[in-house]
Specification:
The chain has 104 residues and is mainly α. The chain is built from four helices and no strands. Helix 1 packs antiparallel against helix 2. The N and C termini lie far apart (35 Å).
Length: 104
């Protein structure tokens, strides 16, 4: 599922992901129609556990996010977004390699 996350959308992303965790949570909660959960989730992840950059969430086991009390659907969407970003970045790298190394 493709999410429209504004100027940091994965379809226009560059490596590495330059998205703040608070932006990611805000955008995903809004997409999931749970704007009421934004402040609680940002407080838990950003303020209590210091995960300022969305890229840092990949280092946190899913079970830990569950123990912190994040909604399961939000956790799924966070990881989906991050791994989709990685896949798109890898594909862009392959295309770059082909276009500028193999083709000429």
């Amino acid at each position: 599922q493709a999410w429209d996350l504004g100027p940091h959308s994965h379809s226009r992303c560059a490596m590495p992901l330059k998205l703040k965790t608070s932006e990611l949570i805000h955008n995903l909660c809004t997409q999931l129609s749970h704007s009421d959960a934004i402040n609680i989730c940002v407080k838990k992840v950003v303020h209590e556990h210091w995960l300022d950059d969305a890229e840092e969430i990949k280092e946190v086991p899913r079970v830990r996010l569950e123990k912190w009390g994040l909604p399961l659907k939000l956790i799924d969407e966070i990881y989906d977004y991050l791994y989709e970003h990685d896949a798109n970045a890898n594909l862009s790298g392959i295309k770059y390699y082909i276009n500028y190394t193999i083709r000429p």
